[in-house]
Description:
The complex is a heterodimer of chains A (about 210) and B (about 120).
Chain A: H1 8-11, H2 21-52, H3 54-61, H4 66-91, H5 95-125, H6 133-136, H7 140-176, H8 185-209
Helix pairs in contact in A: 2-3, 2-7, 2-8, 3-7, 4-5, 4-8, 5-7, 7-8
Chain B: H1 6-13, H2 19-22, H3 36-56, H4 64-84, H5 93-119
Helix pairs in contact in B: 3-4
Amino acid sequence: xxxxxxxxTAHGPHHAGPYNPAKGRLGMWLFICTEVLLFGGxxxxxxxxxxxxxxxxxxxxxxxxxxxxxxxTIVLITSSLTVVLAIFEFERGKPTRARNxxxxxxxxxxxxxxxxxFEWGAKFEHGLYPNxxxxxxxxxGEILYFGLYFTMTGLHAIHVIVGMSVLFVAWRRIGKGTLxxxxxxxxxxxxxxxxxxxxxxxxxxxxxxxxx
Amino acid sequence: MSKLTRQxxxxxxxxxxxxxxxxxxxxxxxxxxxxxxxxxxxxxALIAFTFxxxxxxxxxxxxxxxxxxxxxxxxxxxxxxxxxMHLWWEDKLVIKILIPVVLVLLAIFIGLTYTDILYR
Lengths: 212, 120
């Protein structure tokens, strides 16, 4: 690439050179693969212990509130829809609609965390938290089940917070005009992360809440 | 970050920039993938599968139950990957095969672990 800088209007505000969103998308998908392996390792641990302590896992799963889990599944799936609609509207030149969809998505993320905090709060009240005397008096299988439950849903909740932060930045940048219709990679990749969070929950929900 | 003039912003938002076609990076830009109907349809399917999997938890399926639960979760995530995450329209083969490759890798990990704990 030559040293002479291209006109700022043709190549974006802070970098010269052709714009190729496929590169950024590849990077995002590689990151998503590492995330799949991160949670995959935890699911492997879950699978082995569920096999070893089948009855304890069944009994411990009965202590979870299915209503909370189902509500959060619906909230997260709906937020995934609104993110994909935000990208759709943004790319066809409707930034205001895109921002409204993003705002709705952020509210869904917040609702998810509020429901999750009520759920965890109820568990804490019943003496179910890592290293709690009541939990430690239960069997080895129950201790493992709740250890995995708090680790995996906690790690997932951290991902929800990160995804909300990224989407909030996208919402602000569209408002300020620094996220452009012809350069939507930031919004698209933020959306990919949000969908990943949804996919992980799609597996977490039945495996922890619906052991029959 | 340098401040943009209003004119520069308008030029970047204009979809007739010839650069967009030159470099082959026009994936989705100015021509969004899918349609509102399609995405709402996928959402409805995901909600329906959620209620199905909740209802199934009270059926007496025995050992088959975990298979059914995982099949529904796999179907739901396939819908999200292809539709919401735009893999259906992906024109870069490298990106398209990444997730299947990782899932095969994960299946090998889980399969080998199970041969270990079942036949040790």
